[in-house]
Amino acid sequence: MSEALLKVEGLKQHFPISRRFSVKAVNGVSFEIHSGETYGLVGESGSGKTTIGRSVIRLYDPTAGSIRFQGREISGRLDKDTRAMLRRDMQMIFQDPMSSLNPRKKVGDTIGEGLDIHRRYADPAQRQQAVGAMLKKVGLSPAHAERYPHQFSGGQRQRVGIARALIMDPKLIIADECISALDVSIQAQVVNLMKDIQEETKCAYLFIAHDLSMVKYISDRIGVLHLGYLVETGTTDEIFSHPIHPYTKSLLSAVPHPNPEVEKRRQSVAYDKNASGVDYAQGTEHRVGGTHTVLGTDEEVARWMK
Fold first, then answer.
1. Helix 154-166 vs helix 107-118: angle between axes, to the nearest 10 degrees?
2. What is the pLDDT of residues 150-162, one digit of tens each?
């Protein structure tokens, strides 16, 4: 397998709240993403999904660990060339399509801001053409470049956010809950658009979401996050067909079934980390087949696999 586009090893992100206490949002998370791949990151609210995305793109300074992007270390102090490479080749689609857009800027200026900063056009006509072409690619009209964010629907605003990320032709896009604020029908449109763009540009996605059915649809591999720890990773088929960690089983059991007869018989599996006696800090990563790994002690993993 070729070298990973993004390789995260032992990432920790702690937020001090006083001299004596800090919130340990992410604790020693490791994963990698290859070109053209979609890596889904799932978990309950507060598990650290968004924090990982913001740490990877360096909106936060990581407390510890290594982040390598295109072979370069980006977890420490960034020199000018590395910073320019990171801002050019890694982009983010934010959760709220309204608050992530400047309400006082026309969307054409918002989309073209990356081109302005990195001087990627010869004249204003070339810039206008690039912005118009990107708007068409995401299903909008070039004429929409003259409108303001409040003049769009939620789905259209998210398309603007996608266009802003794509204008730099990035190698990796971090999609942070980018469909959670949208109606179900619009979610499908946006996800299908992202898949079409990936086929065309060969970009990679770090897809952060709550909706397990959508993650199953778009992801090649999945990481399950709980309380800042990556408790299980594997291909989509490995996670959905053969879940091992009790937290993963609990998550999957909560997914509603479209068949009403099956839904009547569905029983959710409760998981209480404290009651189960699981200590994530004592666990190690166990490979259980293929790319499938699970976090736990030898005894716990043996018990879960029975």
1. 10
2. 999 888 898 899 8
Selected residue with higher pLDDT from 203 and 306: 203
Residue 271 has pLDDT above 80, yes or no: yes
> Distance of CA 294 to CAs 40, 56, 75, 245, 300, Å?
16, 22, 25, 7, 10
Q: Which SS3 state, helix, strand or coil, does residue 103 take?
A: coil
Given a cut of 70, whether residue 293 has pLDDT beyond it is yes
**Secondary structure class of 60 (helix, strand, coil):** coil
Reading the block at residue 87, the tokens are 């801002």
Interhelix angle for 124-137 vs 154-166, to 10°?
130
Rounded CA separation 297/177 (Å): 31
d(CA 66, CA 76): 8
Pairing type for strands 72-73 and 64-69 reads: antiparallel
Q: In what order do the strands lie in the sheet with 6-16?
A: 22-33, 6-16, 64-69, 72-73
Q: How does pLDDT run across 4-45, given as a tens digit for each residue?
A: 999 999 999 999 999 899 999 999 999 999 999 999 999 988
Beta 204-208 vs 38-42: how paired, if at all? parallel
- Residue 158 identity: Q
Nearest to 293 by CA among 247, 230, 249: 230
Strand ranges in 34-156 using DSSP code E only, listed in sequence order: 38-42, 64-69, 72-73, 90-93
